[in-house]
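Support reply, case 0932

Customer input (verbatim):
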Amino acid sequence: MLPIPTTFPAANTHRVVLFHGDRTGTDFERVEDLAADAACAAREAVEALQDLPYDLFKPIQTNLARVAEWVRQRHVLSDDFRACCQDLLRDLARIEPDDTQPPGRSTTPCAASATP
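Our regenerated output:
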C-alpha cells in the first residue's frame, strides 16, 4: 500500500511530495548485515550449548571448542566452519530429547494432569 502524498502550497502552485520508507536491498547489498547476524547467532548457539549438563556437554566438547574458535575469529562463512558445524550437529543428533529434561519432569505438558 502506497503512502498518501502530502501537498505543500508554494505561491500559486502546489508541489506533491511522496515519501518512501526504507527499501530492503538484495542479499548481495546486505551481505555485511547477514554475516553479522550469522556471527551473532553462532555466538548465541555456542553459549547455549555450554549451558548443557556436563554428561551431555562432554561428548560434544571437542567439536564445540572448534566451532567456538571459528566464531571467536569471526570466520563463520568459511567451508572449515561449515564442516565443524556439521560435525557438531552430528554429535547433537545422538543426544536423545529426553536426556535434556531435568529428572522428574515429563516431556509432555499434559502428563502431570493425566495421573488418576
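We compared this against your earlier run and they match. Two observations from our side: The two ends are 56 Å apart (CA to CA). Confidence is low (pLDDT under 50) at residues 105-116. Please reopen the case if you see a mismatch on your end.
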